[in-house]
Design brief:
The longest helix has 21 residues. 47% of the residues are buried. This protein has two domains: 244 residues, 3-Layer(aba) Sandwich (Rossmann fold); 209 residues, Glycogen Phosphorylase B (Rossmann fold, 3-Layer(aba) Sandwich). The radius of gyration is 23 Å and the shape is globular. Strand 11, helix 10 and strand 12 form a beta-alpha-beta unit. The protein has a ten-stranded mixed beta sheet, with helices on both faces. Strands 13-12-11-14-15-16 form a six-stranded parallel beta sheet, sandwiched between helices. The chain has 17 helices and 16 strands. It is α/β, with parallel strands linked by helices and 466 residues long. Bound molecules: ligand L263DTV3 and uridine-5'-diphosphate. The ligand O=P(O)(O)OC[C@H]1O[C@H](O[C@H]2O[C@H](CO)[C@@H](O)[C@H](O)[C@H]2O)[C@H](O)[C@@H](O)[C@@H]1O binds next to strand 1. It is an enzyme of class 2 (transferase). It catalyses: D-glucose 6-phosphate + UDP-alpha-D-glucose = alpha,alpha-trehalose 6-phosphate + UDP + H(+). It comes from Paracoccus chinensis. Its EC number is 2.4.1.15.
């Protein structure tokens, strides 16, 4: 059987044991089944110096191969091209893209470094799965080094419409690099459509049907694989967590008020200022709810070294402060806004005691918080999910209260509707959403992708290039 090699920008710290949640669990379990290597960045900088040799950590049949990055590599590859160009572009924030040739060169240089470091670890039958926008050129770099193995790529963030994508000065190079993969995975059908449209509109390729595409004389497969969560595990964590001290103490601190919860990295794509304004509209339009509900917004800081993030951090704090100042009373603070990360067990318990989950990104690849909120609910008395139409998760969770996250009045109305929704309607929506996330959980996601990446798949389905 083939071994699996996973490459991602960040790798969960192997010293902390098997990961507890999210994407890392799925990759860990696929690696445990097949045996293999997980390569990526330690999350640390080696200062101004070149990174030292790969650090190897063995855990069971997984070899972790970790690299530091120099300060310059980090600035150009991660902070620069990945998070100041590709991230804002793919989230439709052209106003925040800061394209610089130096960063683009650094992005390619780090991808080459990753490929050169991985090359000696690759065996002939290995299959290789590369993750996310940080590492698009890695397959081309590996091909240049003579790697003929099957290589797949999964894009965790949205693929934008062609008009947006073509504003990227090096969009042709990005597509060219993607054609070095055998299989491209996207979060939704919509992302696949946008990608195929880019090939067609630029006259560089076409959709050949049955999931096959061709560009620059190469054939590859492209398909939507919406990422899921471990639903049963998260539901049981939430049941347990409501009995924990942390969740009980938090519940007591709300003094019987209905809890609305938002959980997001502090990122401009998450629509936090619009959300806070929407909550304010709700309080203005529904004065009877003042003093009876609290918005708990858990928002750990993220990528603060990028300019767009530090500006937005100030704006979100100002919006929350303004609403609390204007609407708060001696014994009630409408918004509890925290910038700390909360552990996933406590988070699961908080989702379960909340009446409303407010998930209103302006654009999001998937949004796992939406799925976690549903999985955590009490089936006999579930809370209501208010979800942005522009999160990948909305494609499956169409039984949520869907909102346009740019329309703050619509957010306000959706909150009012969710807080007063009768039990029967809440159970009906919850049941429909649970069925969807159970059908398409995290193990199905990795099994479907890896099933399609197996070499025999290519032989049985590959069409001729006309
Ligand atoms: O590594 P960071 O720069 O700190 O960022 C954290 C991760 O953010 C992004 O998450 C995306 O993937 C999720 C799972 O597929 C998806 O639900 C979400 O919509 C995406 O935004 C990023 O793509 C990851 O690479 C980062 O590790
Ligand atoms: O304080 C926090 C905030 C978030 N999360 C987790 O971080 C992930 C966020 O994933 P999502 O897809 O919603 O967004 P991303 O941050 O990847 O864009 C979810 O599993 C959350 O439970 C967490 O554990 N603690």
């Amino acid at each position: 059987m083939s071994r699996l090699i996973v490459v991602s920008n960040r790798v969960p710290d192997p010293a902390k044991g098997p990961p507890a949640g999210g994407l890392a669990v799925a990759l860990n379990s696929a690696l445990e089944k097949m045996g293999g290597v997980w390569m990526g960045w330690t999350g640390k900088s080696s200062g101004v110096k070149e990174p030292g040799p790969l650090q190897f950590v063995e855990r069971g049949n997984i070899t972790f191969a970790l690299t530091d990055l120099s300060r310059r590599d980090l600035a150009e590859y991660y902070t620069g091209f990945a998070n100041s160009v590709l991230w804002p572009l793919c989230h439709y924030r052209l106003d925040l893209t800061e394209y610089a040739r130096k960063d683009m060169a650094g992005y390619f240089r780090v991808n080459r470094l990753f490929a050169e470091r991985l090359r000696p670890l690759i065996q002939p039958d290995d299959i290789i799965w590369i993750h996310d926008y940080h590492l698009i050129p890695m397959a081309s770099e590996l091909r240049r080094l003579g790697v003929g193995n099957r290589i797949g790529f999964f894009m965790h963030i949205p693929w934008p419409s062609p008009d947006v994508f073509f504003t990227l000065p090096v969009h042709e190079a990005i597509i060219d690099n993607l054609t070095a993969y055998d299989l491209l995975g996207f979060q939704t059908e919509h992302d696949v459509e946008n990608f195929a449209l880019a090939l067609k509109r630029d006259g560089i390729g076409r959709d050949m049907g049955d999931g096959w595409m061709a560009a620059y004389g190469r054939r590859f497969q492209a398909k939507a694989f919406p990422i899921g969560i471990d639903v049963a595990e998260f539901a049981s964590t939430a049941r347990e967590a409501v009995r924990s001290k942390a969740v009980k103490r938090t519940a007591v601190s709300f003094a019987g008020r209905d809890l609305i919860i938002g959980v997001d990295r502090l990122d401009y794509s998450k629509g936090l200022t619009h959300r806070i304004d929407g909550f304010e509209r709700f309080l203005i339009a529904n004065p009877a709810w003042r003093g009876r509900t609290t918005l708990l917004q858990v928002t750990p800081k993220s990528r603060s070294e990028v300019q767009g993030y530090s500006d937005m951090q100030r704006q979100v704090a100002e919006h929350a402060g303004r609403v609390n100042g204007a609407m708060g009373t001696l014994d009630w603070t409408p918004i509890r806004y925290i910038n700390q990360s909360v552990g996933r067990n406590t988070l699961a318990g908080l989702y379960r005691i909340a009446r409303v989950g407010l998930v209103t990104p302006l654009r999001d690849g998937m949004n796992l918080v939406a799925k976690e909120f549903v999985a955590a609910q009490n089936p006999a008395d579930p809370g209501v999910l208010v979800l942005s139409r522009f999160a990948g998760a909305a494609r499956e969770l169409d039984a949520a209260v869907l909102v346009n996250p740019y329309d703050v009045e619509a957010i306000g109305n959706a909150i009012a509707r969710a807080l007063s929704m009768p039990l029967e309607a809440r159970v009906e929506r919850y049941t429909a959403m649970m069925a969807r996330i159970e059908q398409n959980d995290i193990s199905k996601w990795s099994a479907d992708f890896l099933g399609m990446l197996q070499p025999e798949q290519q032989r049985t389905t590959e069409p001729a290039l006309a």
